[in-house]
Design a protein that fits this description.
Helix content: over 70%
Structural class: mainly alpha
Pfam families: SpoIIM
Number of strands: 0
Distance between the termini: 49 Å
Transmembrane segments: 103-125, 167-188, 195-216, 228-248, 268-288, 300-318
Largest sheet: none
Protein name: Stage II sporulation protein M
Strand content: under 5%
InterPro entries: SpoIIM-like
Order of helices and strands: HHHHHHHHHHH
Number of domains: 2
Organism: Pseudomonas fluorescens
Amino acid sequence: MKQSLFEHRHMAEWEQFSLLLDQLERNRSAPGGDSFPGDYRRICQHLALARERGYSSFLVDSLQQQVLRGHQQLYRHRSRLGAQALAFILADFPRLVREQWRFVLVASLMFYGSLFGIALLVYLFPDLVYNLIPAEQVSEMQSMYDPVAGHLGRSAERAASEDWVMFGYYIMHNIGIAFQTFASGLLFGLGSAFFLFFNGMTIGAVAGHLTTIGYGQTFWSFVIGHGAFELTAIALAGAAGLQLGWALIAPGRQARAEALRLAARKSVLLICGVMLFLLIAAFIEAYWSSMTAPTPMTKYLVGAALWLSVAIYLLFAGRVRHAPE
């Protein structure tokens, strides 16, 4: 292709990209920024073609200048995304949890209330566990936390090199529970309430049964560490689901579709934080909770520190707003 035809075909695109660069250099949030990565890739392709075909140095230098300016903008936008993610973790997520405290409170009462309530009932009436959990699963839980088995949780016959496999398993398993609890909130909140009660009762029944038969130390020392993040995440996922359900039940003066859309914005952000908590929980469960070398007292102390850290983070992080630069 001759240079004149190449320039005629793409000149409008180059001028538009140059204009977009001018706007982005003056204002980071200028309109058109969403299409910038794709536009930048096409300019890079044009530069490569111009060099390969031996077009004039004037054209090559002009395109290269645009590529260099585009690279600076692309790097700045990626840095901005990283800063936004960091701001979400350090401030926006705990601030959102406090903003939605009513839903968080209701979900926590459902989940932790059923958990500790059933745990106490099973501890007092041991046979009740078989009305809540099949006998096969009860036997499996006993083998997982048998003090003489020499392992904790699902770590039987597991080499240290396989910890990453369990890490992936815990992530998928926990995210599945959290998403189920969240998404079922679209059933006017009834689905989220059901899964909060169901998961709370199941965990409580296991805890009460294992404590009753004398396996409490192995069980509690295993769950106390990652439980700080995992159990909190389940409660927050339920809160996000209840928020969706409430938008459908009481949309106020808005149409239900609009109320649901507005509620979904905050609920999805809440779920992003839940995913982060579950990632941390899976890491702790795979690499710390299943270890048998630390004493139970060490695990209790570490677990207490993790629960305290989660509480401080959700209650106090992001309370101070810094002035924008």
